[in-house]
Amino acid sequence: MATSDHIRPIGLITALAQEYSVVSGVAAPVSDRLIAVQSGLGRAAGFLAAAELGRQEKQLSGLVSIGFCGALDTAIATGSVILPSAIVTADNEHFDTDADWTSVVAAKMAGMPLVTERAIYCATEVIETQAGKQATRTQCGACAVDMESAGIAHAATRFNIPFIAVRIVLDEEADTLPEATRDAVHSDGNLNVGGLLRGLVSRPQDVGGLIRLAGKSGKAQKQLKAVCEALLPDFGFTR
Q1: Which of the two ends of the chain, N or C, has the fewest CB atoms closer than 10 A to its terminal CB?
Q2: At 177, which helix (H) or strand (E)?
Q3: What is the pLDDT of residue 1?
């Protein structure tokens, strides 16, 4: 998408179709300032989507990793907004987010359940169980987990532009994700209806867990929309 010479847009990178539908819908009226992209799952996908957007646009003002995450802290509930100070990985990588930009974003979300000055862990696979989440928190001290932010942060480092993450908590620390969801999403972030149905056939006992997860997903999606609307027109980027 071509933009005016004097405007360098902000890239908003989402992983899932559910996230992208919200973010792109809110950003559409200001598409000269905000461009949403669906990367698919995982760090590599996040990096490639951010890098390709930067190549297409020639120059970006900044990059945002935005979407859902899982809580690792027992005190953090579904719908909480995580504005991390850093992204950490199992390989002891550490990507700082832009402190000034994060501060402006936090101020624009006054009244929302915010968690700041904490790290997010970028995992290589979904952490499904409470035990797994507890072990991850003990290992790295992070308050939440996603799978794309390190890749997007890496791309921002390559471009030498600011980076922040805005993540909405979907599953809480005590939640165990139903096994039937393991094949419910394609690697590109789109829903895999066939995989979900096959999972339910093999594990019909997961129906209750799926219903609860759908309720949490709806709450997280509503909060994501509220966050995006609060950050129009430029996602708090003031430079």
Answers
A1: N
A2: none
A3: 37
Residues across the chain: 239
φ/ψ of 231, rounded to 5, equals -100, 5
> Which is nearest to 9 in space by CA: 47, 63, 52, 50?
63
- Asked if the structure places residue 197 within a domain, the reply is no
Q: How far is CA 26 from the centre of its chain?
A: 16
Look at residue 202 and tell me if it is in a domain. Answer: no
- Give which of 51, 57, 55, 49 is closest to 31, Cα–Cα: 57
Number of domain units in the chain: 1
Residue ranges making up the domain that contains 110: 10-174+221-230
- What CATH number is attached to the domain comprising 109? 3.40.50.1580
Contacts with 69 (C-beta within 8 Å, 6 or more apart), sequence order:
82, 120, 144, 145, 146, 167, 168, 169, 170
Instruction: Flag whether the pTM goes above 0.70.
Output: yes
Q: Does some domain include residue 169? A: yes
Regions of the chain with pLDDT less than 70: 1-6
